[in-house]
Amino acid sequence: MLTKRIIPCLDVKDGKTVKGVNFENLRDAGDPVELGALYAEQGADELVFLDISATLEKRKTMVELVRKVASKINIPFTVGGGISSIEDVSALLNAGADKISINSSAVKDPGLIDRLALEFGSQCVVVAIDTRLYNGASRVHTHGGTKPTEIDTFDWAYEVEQRGAGEILLTSMDHDGTKNGFANDTTSKISLRANIPVIASGGAGKMEHFIDVFKNGKADAALAASIFHFKEIKIKKLKHYLKENDIIVRC
Amino acid sequence: MKIAIIRYNAGNTQSVIYALNRLGIEPIVTDNQEELRSCDKIIFPGVGEASTAMNYLTERGLDKLIPTFKQPLLGICLGLQLMCQHSEENDTKCMGIFPMNVKRFPPKDKVPQMGWNSITHLKGNLLKEIKENDFVYFVHSYYAELNGNYTIAETDYILPYSSAIQKDNFYAVQFHAEKSSEVGAKILKNFVSL
Fold this sequence. Notes:
Chain A contains eleven helices and twelve strands. Chain A is of the alpha/beta class and 251 residues long.
């Protein structure tokens, strides 16, 4: 049986790992390559590296980081942040990334999803969707979740799949950083309709939250950052716990 | 020991190089016929779309060359599918090393299958010391049918299919051994030691 996946996310700024509460107040949480290797060893199923560097110049260092990660780590990993062209993607995939994730650039230019899927295959195109309740409705937000758009989150999830996305990384900005659990209703609504995998993100605080997001949220994978970085939850322990609770995981 | 990776437009070439490097092996990447023939082992990677990849191979004569190799050859992911008879992906005639057909997963679950799944009914040296139900990493929308003669590992996703196959010196795995943690590394090591 196909397993549910546990994915630690490493926010990277200028080559170092950081994690903000609600994407603000960044704290340093270590070296991305070392941390990634440690997670792989502990049983992480995949890794996501999200580049939050402010400048193009500093983003270029991401290709070097991808090379280091790929040479050292033997599980799949996704790279996101500031990707907006075929050339960006080509450089990252050639350096050894398995998938790339696009967010604001896809909202701005939805045709980018089609072009990337055609050029590199849907399997490596992850569309990240940051959603937040805005005037009572789920709306897609861009720019690290700070800028609301008029786009309905559920319509957008459907559209990105039609355009050739291979996976959706859904982050609830209302839940992110709260440690009160994932947005299970929103996640299940999207996952049940989608024919591609959905990674749930935002809100993980306790091991029970992962059971909820797989059972009730119908997520294919769950992503978290700070609770892993600060060792509040150990991946090995989490996977054994999920297995004991009848969630199919690799451990 | 000289190990070659066949140079073509396969997306996972760099990852395969890194995986071999981690085993202390420095592979060469080439599409030169003589160079390939002189190698002890050959790896045929693959990520992408079947007809585009077959066209690329055909233009360079690799579709005729690959089935003539006598040394151990390992196909990975799309590599496995191209070694079969025919793929439903854009109705592509493949190399026909294996008599099986490659079909699209019926839409009873999410397609592609993406993630870790177990391998069972393991046979042969490639999978030596790999345990029944060990997990490996898959990303694919098409699968090779089961075959009593050539299937050396099975996986179940929507239906049971061939996750590894072997015929004489030709080996192939549907999963990404290069990304399948310790289990994948062991399988690559087994291949190198054949």
